[in-house]
């Protein structure tokens, strides 16, 4: 049994310590907003925040997560879809199939929390998530829109 | 379940099918009772609930392309309902069968979602409107012609009486449908034709959207699978002794002749166990095939005598032979994987008398057929609950291998739902790959540099020969000739005095499939890059050279002119920036692109792409823009990076580390010109992909003098 802190709650988890955080979230805790895309920390569909940093949850094992680490998933980003990134995404109709978007949104939110007014280069360096539908143009515009909302 | 009388009157005999799942599991799955009979059903397309919520039934699948919203706009336009109250649902394919295919085709591919069904879905909306008006008129004992519907409210103008759709829906559903209805002129559209927001965005922002991989049913088991990595090989043996006791493992099962699956409580446990035990494959007859041997096989087709002919004008061979100037070039396009972000998956529940599947699919009816076949049960004893796809791109339409596997596994666990998810590695190794072709372009030019003969010789894979031979025309796969055919939705958009387009079919053992844009992708590279070569050989401006060939193709000329003008073709560009053009007709639409690139020390930067689309009628312009932008990402991912290679009969790439795709850092600004000229319905989801690569490749030539003829680009500019 391990304890992890997800979206502000400390939860008990029964899983092998080598289980990736991604699969703990999805299969033990029923939080399926965080997606499996590649399993090798490339595509970013599994992006969550760990102590405010965007992390690929497929590459973090349960054993490597401390009970004091604060994990935030897409389900906990805001209580009512009111995070500036979510609002910008809604305004611009960013998602297409939407499968990569929880990870994309978490990556964008982490970028903006550290760099409130990111340059194009900041966006290029920090947003490394894969979207096969090709929403990148609207993702970039969404980040700019969320930045200018000054939240 | 009580079947209400109005449903019985319509001959609805199998309504219980959709509801069975709900009862089996003792709870309601949101998408499992779609199109179950309800008294508020006005007709097959429209349900209006007492609170005035309008439920529009959508037969095609939403996979990101926005067809769900576009089709709902078309129905709502004719229905005259309040758009703010519109929701949608998928009728199940078994329900469609039981109702004599009232929703017609479920196939969602070939950019056909809207262009193929616009008429009957609009009629569905219009007929429902007439029935709602009739019901209100009956209640008021007035003539329906005196009543009008607008914004979900019916008004009798003479008396000022009003009622809402929700109040009369049940009565309307008991009326006979009008024999015919007149559809609106698109000029008068208020909901369709407008850049409305998508109906399916909000749940994609907070993790609530359920994909197939997210499904959880009571008592559900999870399965991971490995299929023989060499196509045509088989499963020889496996030793599961040491994994049977691993945590959560419930069983290790053969799946058909070629695969083995581990079934466990959780998917991660299944995958961990699957990776931990030795499997012996019988690699079969293809174990020595490699990229090099495939290349040799195709090369021999360039001079083959036996070919399928796709287009003939005059005598191209003779014209080229007699021409004062001859130019030849050989192009090639590699295998590509669809690489949907959501890997293949399906959940199946099998008993001796019934089988149900939940899955992402581009064709619910084909998924139902696969389910039925694998289950050994008639389609009437099966059903498929469609889930929005995490990407489709053609992978989940003609191929339901993942459905068959899920059912075959579930058969070994009767009464228990089993969710099968492919690992990314499995998804890379078992695609239905973009076919590989090479193409020899041969032209004869006259003294002025004008084309007097053109021969397009394609050698390579036929998709239809491999997956749908029944769709071939007199033994010829006309899909191979997309954008090069004499007429139709993929007609060649140039006029040449002498033309020969032929195809030496060379089918390696790698399974080909319909990959977003299909054969328009490489054929447009071949044609548009070669035309560029000819223009340069003739010492003529590439735009002017094309214009001369486009005199009889005014719609293509118009889109080409539109991008050239917006890009400032012919005017000085920024220092170091060069332009490239491409255009085509594909999936019934006329498309052009102009790329602005620079190349510095062998490094390509795409600054801006301007794209023009004439799709006849534009149902949702902002979604067209999204599809055009996305098409550049899909087309340029392939052009810049994408390549599936074969070694020892199997695919070498297993994940995104060796199959890289475009990221946001690669994404240029895309300016989309939507210029619908009316009078026809063209597709939107795919055609722009075809111009993405050639526009960029032609700009690269303008920048560097280097002609890239074999994709992907990879490191060719630094070589």
Can you walk through the features of this model?
The complex is a heterodimer of chains A (151) and B (719). With 151 residues, chain A is of the alpha+beta class. Chain A folds into 2 domains: 2-76, Beta-grasp domain (Ubiquitin-like (UB roll)), CATH 3.10.20; 84-148, [2Fe-2S]-binding domain (DNA polymerase, domain 1), CATH 1.10.150. Chain A has 5 helices and 5 strands; from the N terminus they run ββαβββαααα. In chain A, α2 packs across α5 (136-148). Chain A starts with a strand and ends with a helix. Chain B has 3 domains: 5-204, Aldehyde Oxidoreductase, domain 4 (2-Layer Sandwich), CATH 3.30.365.10; 212-284 and 344-421, 2-Layer Sandwich (Aldehyde Oxidoreductase, domain 4), CATH 3.30.365.10; 291-336 and 433-704, 2-Layer Sandwich (Aldehyde Oxidoreductase, domain 4). A 7-stranded mixed beta sheet of chain B has the order 10-11-8-18-15-16-17, with helices on both faces. Chain B has a 5-stranded mixed beta sheet with strand order 13-21-20-19-14, sandwiched between helices. In chain B, α3 packs parallel to α5 (118-140). At the A-B interface, α1, α2, α3, α4 and α5 of A face α7 and α17 of B.
């Amino acid at each position: 049994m391990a304890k992890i802190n997800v979206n502000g709650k400390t939860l008990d988890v029964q899983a092998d310590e080598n289980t990736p955080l991604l699969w703990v979230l999805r299969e033990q805790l029923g939080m399926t907003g965080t997606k499996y895309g590649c399993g090798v920390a490339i595509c970013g569909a599994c992006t969550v925040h760990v102590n405010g940093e965007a992390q690929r949850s497929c590459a973090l094992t349960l054993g490597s997560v401390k009970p004091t680490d604060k994990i935030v998933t897409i389900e906990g980003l805001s209580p009512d879809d009111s995070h500036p990134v979510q609002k910008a995404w809604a305004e611009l109709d960013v998602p297409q199939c939407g499968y990569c978007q929880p990870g994309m949104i978490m990556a964008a939110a982490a970028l903006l929390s550290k760099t409130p007014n990111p340059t194009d280069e900041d966006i290029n360096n920090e947003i490394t998530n894969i979207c096969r539908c090709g929403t990148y143009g609207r993702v970039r515009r969404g980040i700019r829109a969320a930045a200018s909302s000054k939240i | 379940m009580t079947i209400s009388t109005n449903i019985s009157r319509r001959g609805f005999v199998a309504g219980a099918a959709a509801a069975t799942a709900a009862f089996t599991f003792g709870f309601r799955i949101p998408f499992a009772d779609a199109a179950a009979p309800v008294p508020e059903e006005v007709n097959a397309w429209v349900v209006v609930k007492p609170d005035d919520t309008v439920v529009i039934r959508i037969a095609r699948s939403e996979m990101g392309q926005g067809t769900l919203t576009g089709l709902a706009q078309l129905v709502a336009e004719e229905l005259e309902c309040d758009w703010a109250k519109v929701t949608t649902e998928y009728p199940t394919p078994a329900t469609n069968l039981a109702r004599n295919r009232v929703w017609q085709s479920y196939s969602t591919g070939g950019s056909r979602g809207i262009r193929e069904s616009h008429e009957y879905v609009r009629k569905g909306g219009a007929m429902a409107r007439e029935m709602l008006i009739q019901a209100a008129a009956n209640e008021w004992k007035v003539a329906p012609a005196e009543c009008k519907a607008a914004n979900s409210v019916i008004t009798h103008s003479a008396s000022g009486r009003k009622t809402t759709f929700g109040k009369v829906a049940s009565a309307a559903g008991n009326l006979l449908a009008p024999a015919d209805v007149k559809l609106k002129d698109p000029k008068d559209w208020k909901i369709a034709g407008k850049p409305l927001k998508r109906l399916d965005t909000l749940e994609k922002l907070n993790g609530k959207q359920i994909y197939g991989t997210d499904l959880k049913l009571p008592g559900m088991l999870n399965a991971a699978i490995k299929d023989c990595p060499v196509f045509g090989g088989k499963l020889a043996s496996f030793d599961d002794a040491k994994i049977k006791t691993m945590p959560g493992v419930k069983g290790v099962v053969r799946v058909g002749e070629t695969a083995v699956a581990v079934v466990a409580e959780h998917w991660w446990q299944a995958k961990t166990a699957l990776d931990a035990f030795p499997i012996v494959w019988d690699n079969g007859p293809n174990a020595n095939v490699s990229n090099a041997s495939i290349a040799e096989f195709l090369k021999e087709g360039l001079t083959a005598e036996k070919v399928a002919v796709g287009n003939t004008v005059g005598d191209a061979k003779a014209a080229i032979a007699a021409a004062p100037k001859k130019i030849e070039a050989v192009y090639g396009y590699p295998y590509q994987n669809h690489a949907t972000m959501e890997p293949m998956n399906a959940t199946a529940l099998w008993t001796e008398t019934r089988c149900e599947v939940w899955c992402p699919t581009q064709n619910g009816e084909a998924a139902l057929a696969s389910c039925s076949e694998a289950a050994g049960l008639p389609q009437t004893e099966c059903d498929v609950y469609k889930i929005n796809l995490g990407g489709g791109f053609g992978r989940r339409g003609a191929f339901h291998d993942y459905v068959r596997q899920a059912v075959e596994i579930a058969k070994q666990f009767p009464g228990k739902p089993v969710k099968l998810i492919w690992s990314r590695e499995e998804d890379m190794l078992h695609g239905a790959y973009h076919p590989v072709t090479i193409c020899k372009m041969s032209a004869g030019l006259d003294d002025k540099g004008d084309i007097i003969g053109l021969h397009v010789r394609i050698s390579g894979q036929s998709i239809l020969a491999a997956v749908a031979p029944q769709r071939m025309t007199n033994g010829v796969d006309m899909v191979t000739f997309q954008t090069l055919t004499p007429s139709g939705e993929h007609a060649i958009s140039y006029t040449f005095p002498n033309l020969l387009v032929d195809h030496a079919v060379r089918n390696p053992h790698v399974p080909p499939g319909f990959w977003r844009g299909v054969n328009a992708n490489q054929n447009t590279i071949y044609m548009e890059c070669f035309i560029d070569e000819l223009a340069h050989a003739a010492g003529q401006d590439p735009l002017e050279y094309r214009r001369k060939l486009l005199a009889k193709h005014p719609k293509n000329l118009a889109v080409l002119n539109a991008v050239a003008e917006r890009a400032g073709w012919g005017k000085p560009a920024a220092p170091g920036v060069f332009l490239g053009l491409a255009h085509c007709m594909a999936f019934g639409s006329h498309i052009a692109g102009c790329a602005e690139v620079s190349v510095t020390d062998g490094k390509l930067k795409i600054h801006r792409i301007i794209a023009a689309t004439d799709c006849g009628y534009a149902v949702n312009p902002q979604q067209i823009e999204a599809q055009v932008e996305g098409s550049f990402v899909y087309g340029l991912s392939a052009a810049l990076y994408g390549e599936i290679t074969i070694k020892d009969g199997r695919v070498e790439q297993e994940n995104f580390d060796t199959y890289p795709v475009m990221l946001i850092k690669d994404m240029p600004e895309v300016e989309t010109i939507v210029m619908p000229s009316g009078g026809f319905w063209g597709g939107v989801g795919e055609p722009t992909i075809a111009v993405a690569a050639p526009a960029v490749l032609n700009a690269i030539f303008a920048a560097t003098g280097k002609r890239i003829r074999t994709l992907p680009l990879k490191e060719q500019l630094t070589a």
